[in-house]
C-alpha cells in the first residue's frame, strides 16, 4: 500500500499523527477509541461488512446538556411510559451495512437499551430504552462516541408521530386482487364456446365478477371521482374527468349487460385500467426519504441553548423561550439562534449556513452578532437583542411566499392536453349517438357507451407519470434530487436562471494550491519557504502556509517589487518568485488562473497554481447556458469580484451585487412580473426567500444529507457543471411525453373505429387496453433512458 | 357438477386471505423501509464470547 488509510474511517493518515493499535493503523485518537470500544465489546464484525465504515467522533462536551431538561426530552420522545421510552434519532452518517449492524447492536454497548432498529432510507435509528437504567443523554453520548452523532434540531421539537399515508398501497392491493380474480373468471367467456357447461354456469360467473368489481369500482377508483368532481366545480377540464366518466360508464353498461343477458360486460377492462393507472401513480411518487424539501430555519437551529442566570448559574432553555436581555453561552460549533451583542472579547463566527461563505468572520466585544452564525473556537457569551422569530434572518420567513403554499400553481402537461381531449371526446360520442339513433336506438346506446369506454384515456393518463417517474429516478442516480414529477415539467419551461454567488458558483472549501513543473527537492523547498517568510503579499502568505515547515535560514538580500514578485539570495542561491512577466519566462500571462512562478539559480522550475474557488466547469456551463437562457448572478457580497466575473462569464450575464435576502426575493418577483420563468440556484439560508419565490428553486449542497433550504430540488455540488445537461434532459423528457401522447391517440383511433361502427366486443377492449398500456410504458422507459445516455 | 361452486368459493376465500394478509403487513409498516431488512437478514449470528472487559468498558463509556 502506498498511502495508508485509517482502519476505522478510511481517511488518509498523516504520517506524524499515525497511531498503531492492535496492529491496525488509525488516523487519530478518536478513531482508535472507537475501535477500542468495539473490540472490547466483541463488535469488530463492524469492520467485516464494509472496509473503513466509520467516522471520527467529534468533541461534543456540553453540547447535549439540554437533554437533562425533562421537558425537552419529552418533546423528542416518540413513546413514553414508565419503563419504556422510544426515540427516533436522525443520524446523517448512516451509509452502509456496517452502520446498520452496529446501530442495531447498541444494546451490547449500553445496558438499558432494549432494542434499536435502523431505517436506512430515512437514516434514522429507533431506540427503545429503559429510562430507569439509562437516559436519552447517555444514548446520544454513546452514539457520538462511536462516531454516529445524531442530529437534533428545532425541527424535531413537537415532532410527535408522523402519519404515513399508505392509502395508495391499499388501493393497489385491492385493485390487484379484484383485477386478478376477474380476469381469471372472465377467461371461459373469452373463448365463447357454445357448450352446455359454460351455458349452465354463465350467470354464476357473471355475478361473481360483478361482486368482485364492486371494491375496485367503489374503493380503488375513488380518487378519480373526487378529482373529477373537484375539477368540474372549478371549471377546469382535467384528465380525471374522462377517466372517471369512462369508469362509471363501463360499470353501468356492464351491469346493464349482465342483467339483461346482453353479454359479459367490460368488468375485466375496467379492473385492469384502474389497476394500471394506480400503478402509474405509485411509480410517479418516487420520494427521497432522507431528503427534506420543506426545511426552514428550524432544521438548522438548535433545540435548546445555555442561558446564564443573573446569579451566574447555567441553565438549558428552549430556544423559543429566549427573551430580550437574556445572556447566552455559545460553545464551540454551536449555532447562534438569535441576534445579539457579543459580550466576550473575541469571537470568530462562521456564517456558512447563511451566506455559503466558509471563512469565519472576526467579531469583537460589543459587535452585533446575527442569528445563523456558528461560533468557532472558544466559548463566548452574548446578550440577546431580539427573540428568535424577530431576528434578522428568521424574519425572512414571515414573508408571504412562505405562508401561501399553493397546492398547484400551474397546470400539468396532461391537464393541458385534456382541455382539448375531453370536449372532443364528448362531442364525438354525442354526434355518433345522434347518428345511430336514426338507424337503431339500441345500437346508439351501445355506440355511445363504447366510445366512452374505449376512449377512456388510460394510456394518455399513464404517459406522464411513467415518463416523469423514470426521469426522476435517472436524475436521482445522477445526484439531482427533485421534489416531485411536476418539477421536471417546470425545469423544461425555465427561461431565466439566477445564480447565487458565494457557495453556489463558488465552492466554500478553501482554495487549493497545486504545483506544476519540475519537482522541487527538499533543499529547494527550504529556500522557497524562507524567501516567502519575508513577504506580506497575500499570495505569499498562502503559499507560505502551504509549504511544509522548514528550518530557518538567513536571507542575505531580499527585494520585493510590488505587483511583480520577489527576488532574494540565500546562502549564495538566488530565488525569484512572481508573475511570468517578472521572471521573463513567458511573453505574456494569458492564463486566467492565478500563478506564482518559481526560478532558482536562474533555472525556471515551475509554478504554483492558485485554483480559483469557482466551481469546476463553470465557464463552460455559463457559455452553454447563455445560448438558451438569460443568466443572472445575484450576490449578497460587494462587487469586489465584478471584474473577475465579467471576464469569466459570457457578456450577456447580468451581475447584481449587494443584495439582502429580501432584495433577492424581490428581484425574482420582478423578473416574474416581466413574464419570465425563473429558476433560482442557491445554497444558503439567505437564498431561502428567492428559492421559494422562484418558479423552480434548486439548492446546491456539498453534502445532500445535511442541509439545504426549502426548495424544489437538491443538487449535489459535484454535479454543478451538469446543470446544462439536466436542463436539456428535461426538455427531451417533455418531447418524449408528446410523442407517446401521439402514440396513445393512435390506439384511441383504432379503438374508436370499432366503437363507432358498433362492433366493440369485450374481448377487443380487453386486448387493446393492456396492449396500449404496455406499449406506452416501454416506449417512454426506453426513450428516457436513451436520452439520459446522450451527454 | 355443483362442485364448481365449492371450488370457486374456496379459491376466492384463499385470495381474500392473502389480500387481508397484505393489508395487515402494509399497516404494520413492513413496506415503509424496503432496504434495511434486506441487509439485516445477511448478518450472521456470531458466537457470543464471555468478555471480562465489558463492565469496565461501559463504566468508561459514561465518563467520556
Low-confidence stretches of chain A: 405-409, 587-591
Shape of chain B: elongated
For the largest beta sheet of chain A, what order do the strands appear in spatially? Answer: 16-28-27-26-17-24-25
Assign the structural class of chain B, choosing from mainly alpha, mainly beta, alpha/beta, alpha+beta, or little secondary structure.
mainly alpha
Which H/E pattern describes the elements of chain B? Answer: HHH
- Radius of gyration of chain B (CA) equals 25 Å
Choose one word for the global shape of chain A. Answer: globular
Global Rg of chain A: 34 Å
Polypeptide structure, described:
The complex is a heterodimer of chains A (791) and B (64). With 791 residues, chain A is α+β, with helices and mostly antiparallel strands. Chain A is built from 26 helices and 28 strands. In chain A, the strands form six sheets. In chain A, strands 16-28-27-26-17-24-25 form a seven-stranded mixed sheet, sandwiched between helices. A six-stranded antiparallel sheet of chain A has the order 8-7-9-15-10-13, with no helix packed on it. In chain A, strands 18-23-22-21-20-19 form a six-stranded antiparallel sheet. Chain A is globular and about 115 Å long. About 1% of the residues of chain A have low confidence. Chain B has three helices and no strands. The radius of gyration of chain B is 25 Å and the shape is elongated. At the A-B interface, α4, β5, α5, α6 and α7 of A face α1, α2 and α3 of B.
Amino acid at each position: 500500500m502506498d498511502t495508508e488509510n485509517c482502519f476505522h474511517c478510511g481517511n488518509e493518515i498523516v504520517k506524524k499523527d499515525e497511531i498503531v493499535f492492535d496492529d491496525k493503523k488509525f488516523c487519530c485518537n478518536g478513531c482508535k477509541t472507537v475501535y477500542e470500544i468495539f473490540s472490547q465489546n466483541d463488535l469488530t464484525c463492524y469492520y467485516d461488512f464494509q472496509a473503513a465504515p466509520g467516522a471520527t467522533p467529534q468533541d461534543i462536551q456540553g453540547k447535549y446538556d439540554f437533554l437533562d431538561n425533562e421537558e425537552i426530552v419529552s418533546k423528542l420522545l416518540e413513546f413514553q411510559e414508565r419503563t419504556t421510552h422510544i426515540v427516533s434519532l436522525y443520524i446523517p452518517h448512516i451509509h452502509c451495512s456496517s452502520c446498520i449492524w452496529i446501530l442495531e447492536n447498541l444494546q451490547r454497548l449500553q445496558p438499558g437499551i432494549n432494542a434499536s432498529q435502523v431505517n436506512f432510507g430515512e437514516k434514522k435509528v429507533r431506540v427503545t430504552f429503559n429510562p430507569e437504567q439509562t437516559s436519552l443523554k447517555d444514548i446520544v453520548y454513546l452514539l457520538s462516541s462511536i462516531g454516529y452523532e445524531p442530529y437534533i434540531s428545532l425541527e424535531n421539537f413537537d415532532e410527535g408521530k408522523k402519519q404515513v399515508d399508505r392509502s395508495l398501497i391499499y388501493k393497489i392491493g385491492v385493485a390487484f386482487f379484484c383485477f386478478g380474480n376477474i380476469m381469471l373468471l372472465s377467461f371461459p367467456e373469452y373463448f365463447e364456446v357454445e357448450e352446455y357447461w359454460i351455458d349452465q354456469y354463465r350467470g354464476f360467473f357473471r355475478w361473481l365478477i360483478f361482486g368482485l368489481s364492486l371494491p375496485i369500482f367503489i374503493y380503488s377508483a375513488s380518487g378519480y371521482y373526487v378529482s373529477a368532481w373537484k375539477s368540474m366545480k372549478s371549471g377546469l377540464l382535467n384528465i380525471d374527468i374522462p377517466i372517471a366518466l369512462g369508469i362509471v360508464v363501463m360499470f353501468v353498461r356492464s351491469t346493464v349487460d349482465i342483467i339483461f343477458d346482453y353479454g359479459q360486460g367490460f368488468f375485466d377492462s375496467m379492473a385492469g385500467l384502474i389497476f394500471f393507472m394506480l400503478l402509474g401513480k405509485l411509480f410517479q411518487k418516487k420520494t427521497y426519504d432522507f431528503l427534506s424539501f420543506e426545511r426552514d430555519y428550524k432544521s438548522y437551529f438548535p433545540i435548546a441553548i445555555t442561558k446564564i442566570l443573573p446569579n451566574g448559574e447555567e441553565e438549558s432553555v428552549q430556544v423559543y423561550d429566549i427573551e430580550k436581555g437574556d445572556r447566552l453561552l455559545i460553545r464551540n460549533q454551536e449555532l447562534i439562534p438569535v441576534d445579539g451583542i457579543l459580550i466576550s472579547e473575541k469571537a470568530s463566527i462562521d456564517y456558512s449556513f447563511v451566506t455559503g461563505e466558509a471563512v469565519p468572520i472576526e467579531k469583537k466585544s460589543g459587535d452585533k452578532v446575527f442569528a445563523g452564525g456558528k461560533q468557532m473556537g472558544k466559548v463566548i457569551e452574548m446578550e440577546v437583542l431580539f427573540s428568535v422569530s424577530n431576528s434578522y434572518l428568521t424574519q425572512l420567513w414571515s414573508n408571504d411566499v412562505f405562508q401561501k403554499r399553493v397546492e398547484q400553481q400551474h397546470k400539468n402537461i396532461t391537464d393541458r392536453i385534456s382541455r382539448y381531449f375531453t370536449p372532443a371526446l364528448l362531442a364525438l360520442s354525442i354526434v355518433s349517438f345522434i347518428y345511430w339513433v336514426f338507424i337503431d336506438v339500441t345500437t346508439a346506446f351501445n355506440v355511445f357507451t363504447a366510445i366512452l369506454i374505449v376512449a377512456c384515456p388510460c394510456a394518455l393518463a399513464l404517459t406522464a407519470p411513467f415518463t416523469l417517474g423514470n426521469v426522476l429516478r435517472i436524475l436521482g442516480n445522477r445526484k439531482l434530487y427533485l421534489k416531485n414529477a411536476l418539477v421536471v415539467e417546470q425545469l423544461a419551461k425555465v427561461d431565466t436562471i439566477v445564480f447565487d454567488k458565494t457557495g453556489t458558483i463558488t465552492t466554500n472549501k478553501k482554495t487549493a494550491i497545486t504545483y506544476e513543473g519540475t519537482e522541487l527537492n527538499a533543499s529547494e523547498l527550504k529556500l522557497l519557504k524562507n524567501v516567502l517568510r519575508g513577504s506580506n503579499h497575500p499570495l505569499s502568505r498562502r503559499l507560505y502556509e502551504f509549504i511544509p515547515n522548514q528550518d530557518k535560514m538567513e536571507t542575505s538580500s531580499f527585494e520585493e517589487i510590488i505587483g511583480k514578485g520577489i527576488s532574494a539570495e540565500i546562502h549564495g542561491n538566488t530565488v525569484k518568485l512572481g508573475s511570468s512577466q517578472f521572471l521573463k519566462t513567458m511573453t505574456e500571462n494569458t492564463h486566467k488562473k492565478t500563478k506564482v512562478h518559481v526560478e532558482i539559480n536562474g533555472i525556471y522550475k515551475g509554478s504554483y497554481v492558485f485554483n480559483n474557488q469557482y466551481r469546476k466547469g463553470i465557464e463552460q456551463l455559463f457559455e452553454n447556458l447563455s445560448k438558451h437562457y438569460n443568466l443572472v448572478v445575484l450576490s449578497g457580497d460587494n462587487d469586489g469580484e465584478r471584474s473577475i466575473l465579467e471576464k469569466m462569464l459570457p457578456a450577456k450575464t447580468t451581475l447584481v451585487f449587494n443584495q439582502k435576502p429580501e432584495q433577492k426575493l424581490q428581484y425574482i418577483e420582478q423578473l416574474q412580473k416581466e413574464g419570465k420563468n425563473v429558476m433560482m440556484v442557491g445554497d444558503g439560508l439567505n437564498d431561502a426567500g428567492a428559492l421559494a419565490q422562484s418558479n423552480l428553486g434548486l439548492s446546491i449542497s456539498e453534502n445532500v444529507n445535511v442541509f439545504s433550504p426549502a426548495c424544489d430540488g437538491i443538487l449535489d455540488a459535484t454535479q454543478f457543471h451538469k446543470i446544462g445537461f439536466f436542463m436539456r434532459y428535461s426538455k427531451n423528457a417533455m418531447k418524449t411525453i408528446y410523442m407517446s401522447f401521439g402514440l396513445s391517440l393512435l390506439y384511441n383511433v383504432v379503438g374508436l373505429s370499432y366503437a363507432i361502427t358498433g362492433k366493440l366486443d369485450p374481448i377487443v377492449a380487453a386486448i387493446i387496453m393492456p396492449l396500449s398500456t404496455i406499449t406506452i410504458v416501454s416506449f417512454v422507459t426506453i426513450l428516457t433512458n436513451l436520452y439520459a445516455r446522450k451527454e | 357438477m355443483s362442485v364448481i361452486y365449492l371450488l370457486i368459493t374456496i379459491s376466492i376465500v384463499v385470495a381474500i386471505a392473502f389480500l387481508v394478509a397484505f393489508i395487515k403487513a402494509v399497516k404494520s409498516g413492513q413496506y415503509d423501509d424496503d432496504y434495511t431488512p434486506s441487509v439485516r437478514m445477511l448478518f450472521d449470528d456470531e458466537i457470543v464470547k464471555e468478555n471480562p472487559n465489558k463492565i469496565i468498558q461501559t463504566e468508561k463509556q459514561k465518563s467520556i
